[in-house]
Amino acid sequence: METLVREIRVKSGSEWDHYRTAAVKATERENYFLAQALWLAALDEAKDYRFDDPRLNLTLESLAEVYWKQLKYDKAEPLCKRLLQIWEHVLGPEHADVATAANNLAMLCERQGKHVEAAILYQQALDINEKLLGPNHPDVEMIRQSWSKARQMAQKEVELKVAKAEGRWNTSGWYSAHTPET
Question: Which of 19, 64, 130, 152 lies in the 20 to 30 Å Cα band around 9?
Answer without folding.
Answer: 64
